[in-house]
Each structure stands twice: as C-alpha cells, then as structure tokens.
Input
Amino acid sequence: MNETIKLMTGHHSHRKFLRHFVIPTHEVEAIIASAKQAPSFENGQFYSMIRLTDSKLKQKLVELNPNNPQIKECSEAILFIADLYRTSIVSAENGSVYDVTDNHDALLTAVSDATLACENALVAAESLGYGTVIVGGIRRNGLDIIELCKLPQYTVPLFILCIGKATDSTKIKPRLPKNITLFENEYKRIDYNSMCQYDDTMKKYRDTGIDKPWISKFVHYFKKNKLQVTTTVLRKQRLIK
Output
C-alpha cells in the first residue's frame, strides 16, 4: 500500500489540540495551495476559504458551538464557504441576468467544490503530521456566521476545518460495509439487517465513548432535523426562494 492510500484509509478525527502551537507559514501555504488545486466544475471554483485568526471571533464561534472548543484551541481553523457571489459580479458586469435562486444544480456544484477543496486541505494537513476535524455543526449558526464574517449574498458557510497538533488518541471509525455502499452498474436493494450489523459494530465502538449508535442517531436526525436553520440561511442569501 502506498503512503497516500495508507494515510487516507487511516484517517480519524481529532478534537483536542496543543494550544498555542503555530504551524509554520510555509506549511499553511502548502495546505491552502492543496485546497485550491482540488477538482472544480468547469474550473468555476465556486467556494471561498476564511482563515479564522482573530481570537475574539473564534471565541464567539465556540460560544455558538460549545461542543466544539477545538475551533479556538487548534492551530488553524479554516471556514469553507459555498460561493456563488463572484459569478454574480461577472453576470452583472456583463449585463446578464443572474438566475441562481432555486438553481439547485448551481448550489450543489458550489457545495461540491467547497467539499472537494476541504478534503484536499485535510489530506495535505494530515500528510504533514497534523490532526484534523471538520466541524459541520456550524450550519446551525449560519445566520450568526454570515454577520460575524460579513458574508455577501449568494454564499453559505458549510464547515470549519480544524488543524493542529493532536493531543487526544482516537480510533479509526468503522465504515458501512462495502456490500451496501459499492455497487456495480446499478443500485442494489439494501438489506436492513446489514445496517443492523453495522449498528452493532458502532455500538461496540461507542463503548469507547466516542460515538452514538448509528441507526438511532439518524432516525432522530431525519425525524427532527436539527439543521433546519439552513433553509432560512439559503433564503437569506438568495440561493433558494
């Protein structure tokens, strides 16, 4: 197995970091450069990144996300944003109608571009020996982040990538079995028992105090979506009607 595959298949999140550790500038630049070189639809690069370096700003984000103190404790916290604002300027300057509201393909493209860039940054950071974690729960605070980071219309905050010297010891989280995630030529009907078996695996993993049982977690999530505020954010940012 080559080193890149070994690194990626060995990924596990970290939530505790050595405070006040400073990542060398050239390594931060390498991580950002890796993010920017991620695949992008038609090279549109429909995303932006904001390095969160202001301690007061990070403290406010932790107050909004009390379960994620690593936003302030890590060495580098990078906010990834789906960004359709730049192309709105291009359209306006060329006298064209910017028909993006409720253009779900455009929104999916922007989210995909930002996600690919974030993953590139994560892999680059881990290749340098750092620990990482992606904080997606910030979408609950989308309206606050828009104000705090002065985000323009046609943008939406997605997640924060935290990078630093990990001080915790975590295990690789088991993934869903291949027989219900990888198909050939056509989608196969999934056996519920396979998911129950995975749930049993996650219950054993939960004994370490790291995660919740898989089935109950998502039954609850889809019964009452905790991130419903995202709809309000998307409307405010003129991305949906």
